[in-house]
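Batch manifest line 244
LIGAND: zinc ion
JOB: complex structure
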Amino acid sequence: MEVTGQAFEDMQEQNIRLIQQLREKDDANFKLMSERIKSNQIHQLANEERNVLQEQTNTLTTQVEAQFQVVRKLEEKERLLQNSLATIEKELSLRQQALEMHKRKAIESAQSAADLKLHLEKYHAQMKEAQQVVAEKTMALEQEAYKYRRVQEEIASLRRKVERAKKFEMVDRADEVLMEEIREYKDTLTCPSCKVKRKDAVLIKCFHVFCFDCLRTRYETRQRKCPKCNAAFGANDYHRLYLQ
Ligand SMILES: [Zn+2]
Ligand SMILES: [Zn+2]
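JOB STATUS: finished
ARTIFACT:
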């Protein structure tokens, strides 16, 4: 009896222990289940996340391709721009050469212009000298002509004197000679322009003598030249002459 009770107690104890164990296992099992659920949820979330990332990746890949295309276009553009840059640089160097050539030509032209100016000034100086010489010669010539006319007048006067002397020799009657002489003196005192009035005015340009009226008339009718020698005269060049 005792043994049976002991065995029963043992069995009960064992039973309790087994129940305890079973409960523990249940707990563990429950824990595992809940963990599995959690892990499933995590897995699903991860899948979703992966899908999102995949989409993002696709989008980014598309963007990258687009960017690549843009880069290719930009490279193409750069090539074109470099080509045109090279062309422009070539043109620039050509223009600079032309510019330098023009500069050289301008300098040469300025040089030759200066030379020509120098020549011109020399010619001007020569021309002035020549004009001076011509003026001097003209003046000398005029003086000579004036002298010549005076000499001719003197010759005429001498001729008259000679003729008078001859008449004194040839003619016996003194009366006639004297009459002749009186006539000559009258002539000498008469205006040679109008041959009527007495001489009473002188031209101080040439010192020829006429009547005042003749000279005034000539002045007023703008024939302002000496009737004898053609010397020009002005308002202040004819004056009264008082013989008495
Ligand atoms: Zn007169
Ligand atoms: Zn005169």
